[in-house]
Amino acid sequence: MSHTVGVRQAQKQKTRQALLDAALGLLAEQSLSSLGLREVTRVVGIAPTAFYRHFRDLGELGVALVEEALGSLHSMVRAILAEQAAAEERIDRTVAVVERHVREHPAHVRFVARERHGGVRAVRQAIAGELERFGAEVADALRTQPVSRGWSDDDVRMLADLYVDRLVTTAAAILDAEDAGSPEGERERAVRVARWQLRLISIGRQHWKDEESGERP
Amino acid sequence: MSHTVGVRQAQKQKTRQALLDAALGLLAEQSLSSLGLREVTRVVGIAPTAFYRHFRDLGELGVALVEEALGSLHSMVRAILAEQAAAEERIDRTVAVVERHVREHPAHVRFVARERHGGVRAVRQAIAGELERFGAEVADALRTQPVSRGWSDDDVRMLADLYVDRLVTTAAAILDAEDAGSPEGERERAVRVARWQLRLISIGRQHWKDEESGERP
DNA sequence: CCACTCGGAGGACAGTTGTTCACTGACTTC
DNA sequence: GAAGTCAGTGAACAACTGTCCTCCGAGTGG
Question: Which of A13, A143, A147, B160 is the most buried (most CB within 10 A)?
């Protein structure tokens, strides 16, 4: 009675996911370009050759990991952008979401931070592309805010990219602070710094127009 | 007449440098954790075992590369911090220096960006430590500026860290824009974005105090 | 000039790697 | 229920890895 749509295909995606999970786990202490195909299959418990049924090579697996890793964060930030709130509260909420994301998906965060400038071109490009879409989305959201009145599309986009970059950097910083020396102190400091820096950028944003009209006499 | 102080030791440091250079070259298209010891010695033209005369393992070589890579940038930025200039001009000069640094030491920049979150713990820590010293130095310089009047040491430090982070990110962005698609366009855009973002931070910095005194009634 | 230091050579070791090929057998489709 | 698909198997391949060991010979210090 349970032949809904493909017992076979279901099993395939199951081991495919197992491959992704195993790789992600192994990538906690090495980078993708040093990861071995056999190493991954060994953890999953399948023959090395079975790997090819799912991915052409490890680069392709890496790209799949990028989508998985950035996909979850994407939906989270989308939620923040939707709500209208005061600048100060928005910042707190944003950092809180990032903090939660790091706690729930530490491996994903580490993967993105590590492979963003890593040794595998295809993965780098996948991350860059995803972050670009990300930036465009943030820019759209920023444009609707009153503060952006009179801003050029280009200026809004540069601001959006700055925000996106801070998000990624912040997440990586929180993660680093976790498995480092002091257990609670470093992490809390990272969060504090992130909030402070976002606040500074927000203030700069609010006073941007005064400056621009005043600097050309 | 040329037995100044050690023909032998001179030769040793020469091959040591050759090892560093060879590794740096190979690291253009892979990450440190996937780099092979034999791979490096093959490029230099020495026996694999000779490697051990200079480094215990590749991690140690990586740490040496960190010092070499960050050392050059360090002295450059120190020069910028020394000179007193208007905010706008200072930003232009800073970005110009970064741009020049990327052009002259692309491999070093790529190495730092790649291994900052890379798979080798010792190297990560070396970079983190170096950037921390870096941040402290920038903080010292910022403290002497009139704009920082009334700022706590902690606030100045967070600002300094933000600046340092932007420098590294900017350098990496310029580098990425170079060997990507469009030859001149992308690079110039990266520079423009960097300047814009620094300007925004600078404005936020100037209006920081107003905001702080106004938000608590 | 002689004893010594020490950067480097070269062989050999056991492991590991990615990829190939023909194969099996449970699921799917008609 | 027969024919076909296809995820996973297992042996075999050449190529490579890091490290150990012994040896060499040019520079060094007395």
Answer: B160
